Amino acid sequence: MSKGKYWEEAWETAARADIEAKQLADLKEIVQFAYDHAPHYKRSFDEAGVKPQDIRSLADLGRFPTINKKTQRDAQGVGSFLGELAAVPEEDVVFVSTSSGSTGVPTMSPFTQKDFDEWQNVESRLFWMAGMRPSDRYIHALNFSLYVGGPDVIGAQNLGALCIWGGTLPSERLIFILKEYKPTAIWTSPSYAWYLGDTAKKTGVDPKKDFAIKRIFVAGEMGGSIPATRKAIEDLWGAELFDFYGLSDIFGACAAQCEHHDGLHIAEDHILVETVDLNTGEVIPNGERGELVYTTLRKHARPLIRFRTGDIGRFVTEPCACGRTQGRIWVDGRKDDMFIVSAVNVYPSDIEYVVRGLDGVTGEYLIRITEENFTAHYEVTIEKSQGVDEPDESVAARASAALKARIGVKPQKVIVLPDGSIERSTHKARRVIDERKKEEWQKEGI
């Protein structure tokens, strides 16, 4: 197989006008299809006084109602197994994944065979963009149990790589495979990439010398796009790290970094991106920070028209230095995770940026948000690395000062614990505990 630099050069380097013309044609078709076949869209469009024929330009989409996770939960199972957002009968569905349910009831994401095949072509495109080639050995160390990222291994197989379906193996087993099978690429979460490499070192295995990994793909958490986190993992493994981004609501990875690591190229042939104001929901110009809103352009099993993702970030359409013209996204965090202290918006990703860059700490952290006299406060728990003699009070003071400099408001407290005190995760690490929502946590049994 010889494809050169691009998996699909004509599309990946298309002129902006051609990209938007294709998006408009697909948008008209999918909005009409959703209106004709999905009960929710027929009802919501009629209530909003809009029709599919009202879309004459991409900007016209802003007149249509949005949906969110609650919409999915409310529609799921209503009228049929797939619910009122589905636009095809169950007989046409060949695969269903589910969300983690970390913010509520898990939601299904159904696929027709065409949906599934086009999704895996996107995975091949993203893998190729991140440097994977048929000569690679690839271990897919992501959960296969209902998780939408599981099948993405097929995209690597379709590219021609030798694929090892690892899944969520115990760490010692995965380390053995990394030593014996010598895969050159791996995909996992940022926190587990760090944990796995650190665990290997503590057992006398050097990831740089004893493994053959050249590329690490990460997703599911913010760390892959945080320079300090990326550098820490790269230095530990002696490999290049690429951040991938996906949503269970749409499909596995739908955006990823190229070799320039300057934002994540999003699959604009499948997703139309809008950014809306966090408070008003009004569409704001590209490049400004807001909530990312996605419309699926080609997924027919369950079209998502103006889906509010809850992700805070920005979107630009300027071409990348790599030559690709597909728009790029930067994700700063989850709307649910952002909190306000002294009128300052605080993002967990900014806290991670600071902690990962501190000397003498492991990089693990936990954020706890409290409220006192109607005022929010936050505290950060970190770990001191083994062999560091600096007093805990000094480490805490350095961390507090660095957080104040980066964020603009210092934590109420920085707690320093020994290495290994914070629980590690093999998937998505839970970094934020909001004591203001204590009743919700207890209700969910957390």
Folded structure, characterized:
By secondary structure, this protein is an alpha/beta fold. The protein has 2 domains: 1-334, ANL, N-terminal domain (Rossmann fold, 3-Layer(aba) Sandwich), CATH 3.40.50.12780; 339-443, GMP Synthetase, Chain A, domain 3 (2-Layer Sandwich), CATH 3.30.300. It has 13 helices and 19 strands. The chain has helices spanning 9-12, 16-37, 39-48, 69-75, 113-129, 153-159, 171-180, 190-202, 207-210, 227-237, 348-357, 392-407, 438-443; strands spanning 93-98, 108-112, 137-140, 162-164, 185-188, 215-218, 240-247, 251-256, 264-266, 271-276, 290-296, 307-316, 328-334, 339-341, 344-346, 361-372, 375-384, 413-418, 432-434. The strands form 4 sheets. The chain has an 11-stranded mixed sheet. The chain has a 4-stranded mixed sheet with strand order 18-17-16-19. A two-stranded antiparallel sheet has the order 1-2. β14 and β15 form a beta hairpin. α11 (348-357) packs across α12. The longest helix is centred in the first third of the chain and has 22 residues, at 16-37. It is globular. It starts with 8 loop residues before the first helix and ends with a helix.
CATH class of the largest domain: Alpha Beta
Q: Please report the distance between the alpha carbons of the first and last residues.
A: 49 Å
Q: Order the strands across the largest sheet as they lie in space.
A: 4-3-5-6-7-8-9-13-12-11-10
Write the CATH fold name of the largest domain. Rossmann fold
> Which word captures the global form?
globular
User: Helix tally?
Assistant: 13
Helix content: 25-40%
Average predicted local confidence, pLDDT: 91
